[in-house]
Design brief:
This protein is an alpha/beta fold and 473 residues long. The chain contains twelve helices and 23 strands. Strand 9, helix 7 and strand 10 form a beta-alpha-beta unit. The structure holds NADPH dihydro-nicotinamide-adenine-dinucleotide phosphate.
Length: 473
């Protein structure tokens, strides 16, 4: 079921409808791409956004997160600077970072708006609710818009566990605008946001702990990456509490007191929930017009992003297919191609490269070893673990890991996993041959670029082991 707000009611707008070919609800990555392309293909397009253009990625996600990640990494560079002959006197000012980040986001938002307007899209700053299968009501303007197609691209929001005092914690939405950095923080969760924000806070000098409910963070990623990142984070000073679950939060003198299901209670300057995101299907009138949502309250769509109502489509996080910006962009583009350019285009969700901007970074494309066991009888695993060159003049104990998984008979590369500096950049490029179906022999005949870390990918000579019917041999 789509979430229905208590106050939700169908709009009763008296004003006459304006007719469009497409109304997009939500001006984030997926909605903006769909709106612009559809308009460029000749459709008359309206886009309604109640908050800032750019959505989660630009305003409360990828972009500010990466800027903060850059900020948090200077400290580790200063650590080795002396071995390269530099004397650095460093101090950090959080308000400067936040203000500069805000200015950059304002610039990006303006760029999003002009890109939409330049493409001929009409932008409405309002809250939209479906009145029927082809009409949308605008709450503040009190008007209606009609269109042959309506695209829901409303994204998602962070969720908090249902525990006492949960409201005392922040989420990633709040973390970007904190007035001051806390002295210490407990990050709850073990996924993307937890790994990234724990690294950011730790790098900026906040005493950082993670509380994760199972035994190893980053469920779903290759186990060697999970283990490698956990070790590196611990070595960097992050306290990772596993099999740990907060039970109650109360306000304490200098922060928040946390009681756990098991283990001793502790007080932290702040607590952040990084416990997943849920689709924004609330208060859109979806149920009333017959749009079906799944058990996660996400709009259920087919391969063409069409919902159970044939004039209503959905792309991006609101469909919970894969909550990643590039996926939402692809889905938005495929929708426009299919509906307004006459080229039936479905997004292939099978191979989605992904990265975590933790310290060190994680990059991954294709199958993890654990997934490969489920799908392949026999495969080879190639590993390289080494100290990155930049650390060699210092005593910094930093490690890089490359792991490549190849099918035994065909040699097809099934997965590439990288832990270390620039892992995200490396995996983006490795994703090209993996998507093309390249074999280990294709990697081997590629000339190396020396000296680089990623040359390891084309110089992995012998497998570390084979996996035959789930057993390492
Ligand atoms: P994730 O789904 O990645 O992780 C959620 C974490 O919270 C998991 O470790 C989960 O544990 C844990 N959790 C869930 N519910 C509870 C609970 N009630 N109590 C305690 N722990 C709980 O979500 P994120 O919020 O980290 O990120 C949301 C999505 O946003 C990601 O899946 C990703 O698609 C996207 N994202 C992508 C980024 C990138 O591309 N770099 C960066 C940030 C976000 P368990 O493992 O047991 O389920």
């Amino acid at each position: 079921l789509c979430e229905v707000a208590a106050s939700s009611s169908r709009p009763d707008n008296a004003a006459l409808s304006t007719q469009y070919d497409l109304i997009v609800i939500g001006g984030g990555s997926g909605g903006v791409r769909a709106a612009r392309l559809s308009s460029l293909y000749g459709a008359r397009v309206a886009l309604v956004e109640e908050s800032r253009l750019g959505g989660t990625c630009v305003n409360r996600g990828c972009v500010p997160k990466k800027l903060f990640a850059f900020a948090s990494r200077f400290d580790s560079l200063f650590e080795i600077a002396a071995d390269y002959g530099w004397t650095v006197e460093a101090s950090f000012d959080w308000p400067t970072l936040v203000a500069n980040k805000d200015a950059e986001i304002a610039r990006l938002e303006a760029a999003y708006e002009s890109a939409l307007l330049d493409a001929g899209v009409e932008v409405f700053r309002d809250h939209a609710t479906l009145a029927d299968r082809d009409t949308v009501g605008l709450r503040d303007a009190g008007t209606r818009l009609s269109a042959g197609r309506i695209l829901i691209a409303t994204g998602g929001h962070p969720v908090r566990p249902d525990i006492e005092g949960a409201d005392l914690a922040i989420t990633s939405d709040d973390a970007f605008g904190l007035a001051a950095l806390p002295a210490s923080i407990l990050v709850v969760g073990g996924g993307y946001v937890a790994a990234e924000f724990a690294s950011i806070f730790n790098g900026l000098g906040v005493k950082t702990s993670i509380s994760y409910r199972r035994d190893r963070i980053l469920r779903g990623f290759d186990n060697d990456l999970r283990e490698g990142l956990s070790e590196a984070m611990r070595a960097a000073g992050i306290d990772i509490l596993v099999n740990s679950q907060p039970r109650r939060l109360t306000r304490a003198n200098e922060g928040i007191h946390v009681e756990f299901e098991h283990g001793p209670a502790a007080t932290y300057g702040a607590v952040m929930f990084a416990t997943g995101r849920a689709p924004n299907t609330r208060d859109l009138g979806l149920e009333a017009v017959g749009v079906v949502c799944n058990a996660r309250a996400a709009v259920e769509v087919d391969e063409w992003s069409r919902s159970s109502v044939d004039s209503v489509f959905a792309v991006g996080d609101v469909t919970a297919r894969s909550a990643l910006t590039p996926v939402a962009i692809r889905e938005g583009a495929a929708f426009a191609e299919t509906e307004f350019n006459g080229v039936a285009t479905a997004v292939d969700h099978r191979i989605i490269p992904t990265a975590i901007f933790s310290e060190p970074e994680v990059g991954s494309v294709g199958l993890s070893e654990e997934d490969a066991v489920m799908h392949h009888l026999e495969f080879e695993v190639y590993m390289a673990r080494f100290r990155p060159m930049i650390a060699t003049l210092s005593d910094r104990q930093e490690r890089t890991m490359f792991k490549l998984i190849a099918q035994a008979d065909s040699g097809r590369v099934l997965g590439v996993h990288v832990l270390g500096r620039d892992a995200a950049e490396i995996v983006q490029l490795a994703a090209i041959p993996v998507t093309m179906g390249a074999t280990k022999a294709d990697f081997d005949r590629t000339m190396a670029v020396h000296p680089t870390a990623s040359e390891e990918l084309v110089t992995l000579s012998k497998p570390a082991y084979r996996v035959v019917q789930g057993e390492r041999v």
